[in-house]
Amino acid sequence: MLRVTLLNKLNKKKVEKRKPIKELEREVKREIDEKDTKEPYGFTKQDILAMIIAGYQVIMPIVLIGVLALIAFVLIFLKIYS
Length: 82
Known about the structure:
Blueprint: H1 2-17, H2 21-38, H3 45-81
C-alpha cells in the first residue's frame, strides 16, 4: 500500500508541474515558425512525383471499382432488355 500512495504523490507532483496545452501549442508554433524562417521548405521534383504516385495509389482502386460496377450494370441491363 505504501508504494501505491508514494506513486500517487509523485504523479500529483508531475501533474502540477505540467504546462497548459495552449501554452505548449504556442511554443511549438513559435519553434516551427523560427525553423521555417531560417530554412523554408521547398518541394523537389522527387517529392512532387512521390505525391502524384501516392494520389494514384489512392484514386485508381476507386476508379477501377467504379468502372467495373458500370460495366456490370450495362451488361445486366443489356441481357434483361435485349
